[in-house]
Amino acid sequence: MKFFLISQDGDGLGIARRLVDEGHDVTVRIRNPKARSDYDGLLKKADKLSVEKGTLYLFDSTGGGKTAERLQGQGHPVLGASMFAQQLEMDRHLALELMADAGIQVPPSKHFTDYHSGRQYVETTGERMCFKSDDNGGTSYVASGPDDMLEFLNHQEKEGEKPDFELQHFVQGLEISTEIWFDGVDMTPPINHTFEKKQLMNDDIGPSSGCTGNVVWACTQTYCRICEEGIKRFIPMLHQQGYRGPIDLNTIVNDNGVFGLEWTPRFGFDSFPALMEMMTEGVGDTLEKYCRGERMTKFPMRETGFGAALRVTIPPYPFEREGEALAPQGIAIRELVRADRPHAYFYNVLLDPEGQLRSSGASGAIAAFTGFGDSIIDAMGKCEEIARRVDLKDKQFRTDLGHSFSESYSQFQRRIAQPASPSEKNSLSVTASSSNTVLVVNA
Fold it and tell me: If you write DSSP's letter for every residue of 43-110 in order, what string do you get?
């Protein structure tokens, strides 16, 4: 098959590399100039979009909705982008409204376009808050208390950051994401759950990054409280919008229920690299079916065991200045062996003319090393074995994720993965209904 991947920052180039390994013809286009050298020597690249009959078009990140819908309107199979998906992830306020309209519980939240009103709200409520930039591409911050949030808002204003943000009341509980693969009509079982860590250092210390590690597993329960109270209630909207592909709802779960936080209507990084460890069919064959809108009875993944991903980076990751590539280029990446190939999902790397794998600069994300195991400790241990062995100057990665994720999974089993009573099941049934919130999908 022939694939063309449109990438914003190079996040999905590892998918393209897997497709090439499976024997497919793949071309990629990277939009962000900072990431243009990613995968030099490893993938076939194009400077502009090439539209050709028989090609399947993949988008690896939010954005590109207009291009995706134009291609789809011309009859080309497309996966990974749409105006609906773009609004769902980039407009946090709209996303929360859609959750509430679908019957998904959300934490109390309020939208602000000036810092003074935000400070007044924090002072009046006296609650612990989370700050989230409303374009979903900017800053997020979980304050330790009201005074901390007031100080943070003062800092944002002093730095000249645009005042367009949500203040969301902090909810204590287990953070867990639930992903379904949607074929345009219904979700394809099994669903999968993900735990993710963002803090750079062990014990959740240090700055927050895009991701430091994930663990993924299939949910094979006949009744899943998180799915029933969460993402399953959104199926009528997905059907109405003709959505296809993966979509993830990040939630906090406690004794008061399931609270929706945000959507990821695209491939997740590094959850998709971990999910590839679970897949039982070729990635290309699977993506083709969803691209073409085929009805699916089952998503091809193992129903036991765990897929894991551990991100390895180099300084100054996760810090970068707008418009600058701070990470060094040309750092050698050695001691990887042929057997590591299916378990190395690369990011900012290239192959030099002498055949040596090196860092390509950009943000300094080198790879997510992945593994599968019967237990979380086993799966994460396989990731860590590669991370420890790789010879990479100033490498940084966490060494506590196996135990940390295992503790979260034990909590999940004790408090969440329990069968509900018949009355609870009936009260959580989903009925197709239209939302009162208007989507402007052609803007």
Answer: SEE-SS----TTEEEEE-SS--HHHHHHHHHTT--EES--HHHHHHHH-HHHHHHHHHHTT-B---EE
What angle (nearest 5°) sits at the alpha carbon of residue 100, between those of residues 89 and 167?
A: 65
- Cα 413 to Cα 18, 105, 421, distances in angstroms: 33, 22, 17
Would the pTM of this model clear 0.90, i.e. be above it? yes
* Phi, psi (degrees; rounded to nearest 5) at 310: -125, 120
Give per-residue pLDDT as tens, 215-256.
Answer: 999 998 888 999 999 999 999 999 999 999 999 999 999 999
Per-residue buried b or exposed e for 213-239, using 16+ beta carbons within 10 Å of the residue's own CB: bbbbbbbeeeebbbbbbbbbbbbbbbe
- Residue 178, amino acid: T
Q: Where are the beta strands (DSSP E) in 290-390?
A: 306-313, 329-332, 344-346, 349-351, 357-360, 365-373
pLDDT at 325: 53
Distance CA 133, CA 393 (A): 34
Angle at 336 between CA 333 and CA 342, to 5 degrees: 115
SS (H, E, C) 99-121: HHHCCCECCCEEEECCHHHHHHH
Q: Give dist(CA 9, CA 271) in Å, integer.
A: 17
User: Can you tell me the distance from the alpha carbon of 196 to that of 211, in angstroms, rounded to the nearest whole number?
Assistant: 7
Domains in the chain, start-ordered, CATH in brackets?
Answer: 2-83 (3.40.50), 108-169 (3.30.1490.20), 174-415 (3.30.470.20)
Give the integer Cα–Cα distance in Å for 83 and 97: 17
Q: In whole angstroms, give the CA distance from residue 125 to residue 94.
A: 23
Give the residues across from 194 on adjacent strands.
177, 216
